[in-house]
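During the no-cost extension, the postdoctoral fellow (Dr. R.K.) reprocessed legacy sequence entries with the updated structure-token encoder. One reprocessed record is reproduced below for audit purposes.
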Amino acid sequence: MRRHERAERIQVILDERVPDPAVPLDHRDPFTLLVAVVLSAQCTDVRVNQVTPALFAAAATPARLRELPVAEIQHHIRSCGLAPQKARALRALAAQLVDAHGGEVPCDLPALEALPGVGHKTASVVMAQAFGVPSFPVDTHIHRLAWRWGLSSGQSVARTEHDLVRAFPREHWNKLHLQFIWFGRSHCPAIGHDPERCPICSWAMSRARRRAEARRRARNR
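Re-encoded structure tokens follow.
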């Protein structure tokens, strides 16, 4: 099966299983989404959604976050992974937004990537979900699904993004990014995955990839 035919069949299944995917991170505007995505690195979305209400009550704008001491930011996000580094990055990010962008989150990928603590994936999520600009952000989970489903070689996250944007129509990228996330959680998890029971892996995951994943699991036991 050619990659585009495979992608078409996958998209039909995703539309059936996840017709209206929501952004999993609670937010009010582009700035609070940006902060939440920064916090989500090496941390679950559930945990991020638990810590952001208190943080946003204290500082819901770049100007207010810039005024918080790093120690106070870290106190609010202490249960997130890498809290000390993230606290410093968030304060510096807020200061740069105020000083360089008038306190607004720029709708510009290079400008977002230039912010402290913001990488390509984070910037792409904000472009897609805050501003509606077609993007296909790839995290480790989407990277895993694309490899399992034969949509990419799995060589790198950058390669996976390249392959996904070529496989799917541009106007569907933003929705597909969310559909991958929710489908992965409900049907195609990293741990305890049974390809035969997955509506996509059952036909899309090759025998070679099943064997490779089984070997990785055995090594990690």
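The longest helix spans residues 83-101. The chain has a mean pLDDT of 95. The remaining legacy entries will be reprocessed before the final report is submitted.
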